[in-house]
Amino acid sequence: MDSHLRKLCVALLAASAGIACAAEAERNWFDDPFFQVSSAVAACPTPAGPFVTEREKQAQSHRRAERGTTCWLAGRCDRPSSYHYDRDIAAALHAALARSSAMADTSLWVTVQGRVVNMEGCAQRAASVEKIEALTRSTPYVSNL
């Protein structure tokens, strides 16, 4: 193989590797609760939620381990990790939001990570947002820090 052809092959391999990296799949690596709670605003885009690439997962792993156990070590949690509350929080919040009239003019998604609730989406009235925030803060185990 002559040197020009070899260089072309190396360049093509490098380019295809770059494409593969650029298209790295995002997943919910930590299995964080993520769910839609309303869909009244049709043009509201779906948020990224807890979906990250494997590289991002690796970058977050240490911080999540440290943050999860700090809660217990500080005596603010009775479970060994703040992430052990997330499924209970998600279930309680999902049920409470389903009963709330404040959801009528919203399209919202919820992510729960380490007792922290992130709500993303669209709401047509500020009063709805205030009611939803109050309901979320009153959910057992939600961190209000």
Secondary structure blueprint with pairings:
Blueprint: H1 3-22, E1 34-36, H2 54-73, H3 86-99, E2 106-113, E3 116-123, H4 126-137
Antiparallel strand pairs: 1-2, 2-3
3D structure, described in words:
This protein has 145 residues and is of the alpha+beta class. Helices cover 46% and strands 13% of the residues. The protein has 4 helices and 3 strands; from the N terminus they run αβααββα. The chain has a 3-stranded antiparallel β-sheet with strand order 1-2-3, covered by helices on one side. Strand 2 and strand 3 (116-123) form a beta hairpin. The radius of gyration is 21 Å and the shape is flat. The termini are far apart. Residues 1-15 have low confidence and may be disordered.
Uncertain segments: 1-15
Strand order in the sheet with the most strands: 1-2-3
**Computed structural class:** alpha+beta
Rg of Cα set: 21 Å
Inertia-based shape: flat
The number of helices is: 4
Strand fraction equals 5-15%
Number of strands: 3
Mean pLDDT over the full residue set: 87
H/E order of the elements?
HEHHEEH
Q: How far is the first residue's CA from the last residue's CA?
A: 64 Å
Main beta-sheet annotation: 3 strands, antiparallel
Residues in helix, %: 40-55%
